[in-house]
Automatic annotation (TrEMBL):
GO cellular component: plasma membrane
Listed Gene3D superfamilies: NAD(P)-binding Rossmann-like Domain
SUPFAM superfamilies: NAD(P)-binding Rossmann-fold domains (SSF51735)
UniProt cross-references to InterPro entries, sorted A to Z: NAD(P)-bd_dom_sf, Saccharopine_DH-like_oxidrdct, Sacchrp_dh_NADP-bd
Lineage top rank: taxon: Bacteria
GO biological process: glycolipid biosynthetic process
Annotated protein name in UniProt: Saccharopine dehydrogenase
Organism of origin: Sphingorhabdus wooponensis
Domain Saccharopine dehydrogenase NADP binding: 8-135
Length: 405
């Protein structure tokens, strides 16, 4: 797509995370190696972002998420659109449709499995026909999980001659906060699930994002509050597991079941040792459950939205982003009982400082690294970007992928 005016358009440059992305793009690609522009629905807001960062020569493009013609004009000018306009289930449909039909590559930060499935069902045939490569989940959910599993399996194959039949992912440490946009996406998903029994069933299916002819039927492990001998500490369910596990299973399906048809995968948070670890595991679990229950009840949801949770446009301070980090360990075991451990770490808060770098590098990887021979369709980060993105994340985004001895 060398004939396009831009390599990447950052759609939603005014969002909380979009502004961090714009700042990062400005610093990373000042050498002109990526031709990029910013876009959103309000020229004045985009101009403010441009002025605050000191962009010069970076074009501003205006397009509302409901304006198909304007989105077509965006796609006509660029190889890749990276979007932070969310909740995606509310604002993302038309952009994905336009990208899929015009052969424009696309990546985003959605963590909304019900919306991804809807987009796959509606637009996969168009994307295959046009050559558009669509890659959802290019932020903290689900790049560390999807690429962490990919990295571990590659090492297992080299070391044991076979991939691991089971991987337990453990969040050992994580420091960061949530933004209004993330909360809005969570609230929208709870609202949709409350009024739709089919959706509630779909959200329970670990293979909901796999192609319809997938061959998986093995029951996936369920994380409970427990002392975990694998990680040597108390564990609780991880809030992002709902999306991450589904992306990992889709990667397995798209790679011709390279992790095995009976592959088992689960994710948990390690809360520590002894009675304090147990107490924290219970608090983490019941805290998330209480939030979800509260969001399902309209008056409580209103109170939480109005007085407690961050609003759209709000998120962790710059200091909190810089002081943030994540440290995740993957414990793999083969069917023969051989074991292997890999670690993925990041140097900023997972949801914003680090996510902004992950999405930007995913977009750059789509624009510059993926060979022309790769067909269009709905890919996952591991299946289309894989080792090329790992190299970029290690070189330019503060992530490390390491195999433990
Ligand atoms: N996967 C991850 O790890 C991860 C991490 C962070 C965020 N996220 C997701 O990323 C998304 C953005 O989060 P955020 O907190 O940065 O959101 P935010 O600050 O609330 O920003 C929302 C963005 O959507 C734009 N927008 C809303 N309606 C629009 C429309 N009709 N047309 C065009 N643009 C429209 C807003 O434009 P205006 O500024 O003009 O209002 C703004 O740029 C959310 O869906 C969130 O869940 C995911």
């Amino acid at each position: 797509m060398a004939d396009k005016k831009f390599d990447i358009i950052v759609y939603g440059a005014t969002s909380f995370v979009g502004q961090i992305i714009t700042r990062y793009m400005h610093a990373q690609f000042a050498d002109g190696s990526i031709r990029w522009a910013i876009a959103g629905r309000s020229h004045s807001k985009l101009q403010n972002v441009s002025d605050a960062i000191g962009l010069s020569g970076v074009e501003i493009i205006v397009a509302d998420a409901a304006d198909e013609d304007a989105l077509r004009k965006i796609c006509a000018q660029t190889s890749v659109v990276m979007s932070t306009v969310g909740p995606y289930a509310l604002y993302g449909d038309i952009l994905v449709k336009v990208c899929a039909t015009t052969g424009t590559h696309y990546c985003d930060l959605t963590g909304e499995p019900q919306w991804i499935r809807k987009m796959q069902l509606r637009h996969e045939a168009d994307a295959i026909k046009s050559g558009a490569r669509i890659v959802h989940c290019c932020g903290f959910d689900s790049i560390p999980s999807d690429l962490g599993v990919h990295f571990l399996q590659r090492n297992a194959l080299e070391q044991f001659g076979q991939t691991c039949a089971r991987i337990d992912m453990r969040v050992v440490s994580m420091k960061g906060g949530a933004s209004g946009g993330t909360i809005a996406s969570m609230i929208n998903m709870v609202k949709e699930a409350v009024s739709d029994a089919d959706l509630r069933r779909e959200l329970q299916d670990p293979y909901s994002l796999c192609p319809q002819n997938h061959q998986f039927s093995v029951t996936q492990p369920e994380v409970k509050i427990a002392y975990d001998t694998v990680a040597g500490g108390w564990i609780a369910p991880f809030i992002m597991a709902g999306i991450n596990t589904r992306v990992v299973h889709r990667s397995n399906a798209l790679s011709h079941n390279s992790y095995g048809v009976d592959f088992k995968y689960e994710e948990a948070v390690v809360t520590g040792q002894g009675s304090s670890g147990k107490r924290k595991a219970k608090a983490a679990h019941w805290g998330v459950n209480a939030l979800m229950l509260g969001l399902a009840v309209p008056p409580i949801r209103w109170l939480l939205e109005t007085f407690v949770l961050p609003k759209p446009g709000e998120g962790p301070s710059e200091k909190a982003q810089h002081e943030g980090m994540f440290d995740i360990v993957f414990f793999g075991s083969t069917a023969r009982g051989e074991t292997i451990q890999c670690r993925v770490t990041g140097d900023r808060d997972p949801g914003y400082g680090s996510t902004a770098k992950m999405l930007s590098q995913a977009a750059a990887c789509l624009a510059k690294d993926v060979p022309d021979s790769v067909p269009g369709g709905f890919w996952t980060p591991a299946t289309i970007l894989g080792d090329m993105l790992i190299a970029r994340l290690q070189a330019h985004a503060g992530l490390r992928f390491e195999k433990h001895a």
